[in-house]
Amino acid sequence: MKIYKAHILFTKEKDHFEVIENGYIGVDDGHVVGVATDDSVFQCPEAEVIDLGDRLLIPAMNDIHVHAPQYRNLGLAMDLELLDWLDNYTFPEESRFADIHYAERMYRRFVHDLWRHGTMRTVCFATTHLPATRLLMHLFREAGMSAFVGKVNMNRNCPEALCETLEAAEQACETMVREFGDADSLVRPIITPRFIPSCTPEMLQLCGKLAQQYQLPVQSHLSENTSEIELVRTLEPESSSYGDAYNRYGLFGQTPTIMAHCVWTEGKELELIRKNDVIVAHCPTSNFNIASGMAPIRTFLDSGISVGLGSDISGGHDLSIFRMMVYAIQVSKMHYQRDKSKHFLTLSEAFWLATKSAGRFFGHVGSFEPGYDFDALVIDDSDLNHDHYSLLHRLERFIYVGDDRNIVHRFCRGREITEPAVIA
Ligand code: GUN
Ligand code: FE
Questions:
Q1: How far is CA 350 from the centre of its chain?
Q2: Which of 98, 126, 159, 191 is buried most, with the most CB atoms less than 10 Å from its CB?
Q3: What rounded mean pLDDT belongs to the chain?
């Protein structure tokens, strides 16, 4: 067993922080044994005690919606809405991932920068290319970081270079399951129909079948943009909502499912998300940048819907999940100004969304309760802490104005994760 000593902060529940000044956390075989104010409670005198000094120890970040192959487009091309943005900027960039050397250069940079920002768990889209997708999974594995990686499925309304056959899609899935199917592994496949406009009914049916057959989780996009929703209405006229279209193909909570955005979700679709226990990935920066709208997160939480945060690079321009907490709070303050009954998100709620709420998708992740994976960050905020702030104010200042330079140690399932290599 190892025992780490630091100021420990985490959220067991969304409404308040657990704060243990000069606390101890026992870690055995990658998992949290417990948190205490005194190391004698672990009854393990031979345990190594690592004193981290006047630093903050918090759960590591989880990003539950991000596109790895869009990393080169970070911070550019924000002048179009979703459908034109995909055609003009996103699909051309993703087409380049047929080249495995290009893919390696970009994907190494992506994994490195997730590490830099303290994101130890990721649920991401790759592209339709199997070799590049497998490479990305190997890079996460090599780094010791955890990820669900989706080889994207798409076969309509896209350039030839990204269009795949049903046979290729099925074979690729079988390959991924063979290679990465172990349920206890940190890196696992996830069924990834891009969204309804990119997939024929036959492709959606195949995705639902594969999810069921191999018991794989599912990720996609839902009700992000009004023109997209209108298009889905014409493509799936039998469905009562966009979400219902996924549901009819077995892609809406039949296995654990994440749907990104849900900006315009209400009524029957909201009810179906709740009933099927679909997790919403809230991506506030992306929703600003490609002018999609403001997701009603308070309404989702009040309805008992699970929510996590996503950077959604490159609709989003910021890989930091700490900054995503800030944006999520800011969006909720916009809603609040229109309807004072929808109270804006608190810091503890935003922190909980990024840690324990999102972490549920990975198992026992995102908290320091006993049995949880020890996924943690050590924050040295000495350059921000000039004036004897409380521990909670120190954390708040780090979240709002700190950056990756304040993160001095990163752990994933108990292992310290060192800087992954990049190609210059
Ligand atoms: N909907 C379908 N594909 C995408 C994508 O790459 N990014 C975003 N933001 N929405 C999508
Ligand atoms: Fe997305």
A1: 14
A2: 191
A3: 97
